Prior knowledge:
About 35% of the residues lie in helices and about 25% in strands. By secondary structure, the protein is α+β, with helices and mostly antiparallel strands. The chain has a 7-stranded mixed β-sheet with strand order 4-5-6-2-1-3-7. Helix 4 (about 95-115) packs across helix 6. About 30% of the residues are buried.
Amino acid sequence: xxxxxxxxxxxxxxxxxxxxxxxxxxxxxxxxxxxxxxxxxxxxxxxxxxxxxxxxxxxxxxxxxxxxxxxxxxxxxxxxxxxxxxxxxxxxxxxxxxxxxxxxxxxxxxxxxxxxxxxxxxxxxxxxxxxxxxxxxxxxxxxxxxxxxxxxxxxxxxxxxxxxxxxxxxxxxxxxxxxxxxx
Length: 183
């Protein structure tokens, strides 16, 4: 499958990424869908365009620096895509939550001790740790994870600050070789 992904970042990060390529740092607190390069992609389901979502996200979460958007041409083998919009995939992942809770919390606590000032630690969402643990337990190595989700990307005058209903589609590229070209 071919995707065009929009990755919001700072202008200086964009320059470094275009020069040296993406790097996935697994020595950090994982984001909600685990480690990888987060891209917004356009679908017919949502009113906010992916490029706009990436820019809004970058402005909100990537410091006060000037922001930029990287456009990624992405190619994912269908068999290497974990689509969490598919109910059976989501249920297979979620059934491990109670079984892995203690080990996930232990990993999060270990990270908290060493990085207590980071905003991601203060937010406290352990979904990324959980997803990483499930993938390792099940010996699943997807090249990407796809999911419709809610992101804080509302740019209207009626600001929202949380939600359960998805407003965007995120493609998390875990295998950097799946990104054919960035601009």
